[in-house]
């Protein structure tokens, strides 16, 4: 196994400040997609003394290993809005502002193999299109025309959203970090938070590089957010789960271009990667912080592919990686402000949807911090729903 796809990690930035400032208006804990998007939006809004602390390199946690999908194809209206708004930002930054994110809008294709799945996806398509998306239902025959790998006889129907696709997370993290720095935000890599102490005056942050006092903090550390929240009495229930993907060999002649394709029945998925294919499946894994790559998912993928996309079964893999999903109890994000400690905000627990929602969440946290109305009511995403004080979210398009 060769781990050669290290372009998904953001390189170290040599001009980092030598020491932490003594004080900051806002300290963001976590330098992945949520952290850098939030830093950029706060700095752009004129917030002074914005600091990001990342215990490793920028984008080296969950943001280093996603599939790169960008989509608005969800069933929950809040998720649709977050996905659509982020997609609009990706489009603007790449096509109008010349920020190359490797954005490829090849579409998303959700496969249905039962009448119940068709009915569920049809309802989701109605929600999506009522909120400005361009999804549509397609027949098994049309699905196989859109994606020639598919066995149409195995399908009952599908949905197709041509505006969606995928991008390269490392490029997005690097660009947002660059823009945040230009606006005055300070970003400290290899700075681990060892302890937090909250009071009405703010939060004291202890790191191996020294102390910093923040008027407010934003917990945006993905699967590691639960431990940080516990330091200040904030319950952020997250269960880390390993997810793995593999890459087929690069061909002299590329495969046909296909959408990001996902089978709802088996959770197998695939899309093009350079001249090869990216393959994966959300197989059962014991929760934990294990991030070593293994082949334990391959048999399950092959069994699904034999039915759905036979030509992709039993493919040799030339590389692969493992990363963490940060799953909440209802597999939806926690975005909000702590009800008893208003100087503690959080954006975490995205359960596999973080990269595609990052730009919009940065805006939402900015508006929460500034105590102003935003494009979306964040209350349904509050962590309070796991304390039984409000309804949990129900999202059907989870892989």
Automatic annotation (TrEMBL):
<dbReference type="Pfam" id="PF01266">
    <property type="entry name" value="DAO"/>
</dbReference>
<feature type="domain" description="FAD dependent oxidoreductase">
    <location>
        <begin position="26"/>
        <end position="368"/>
    </location>
</feature>
<keyword id="KW-0560">Oxidoreductase</keyword>
<dbReference type="InterPro" id="IPR036188">
    <property type="entry name" value="FAD/NAD-bd_sf"/>
</dbReference>
<protein>
    <submittedName>
        <fullName>FAD-binding oxidoreductase</fullName>
    </submittedName>
</protein>
<dbReference type="InterPro" id="IPR006076">
    <property type="entry name" value="FAD-dep_OxRdtase"/>
</dbReference>
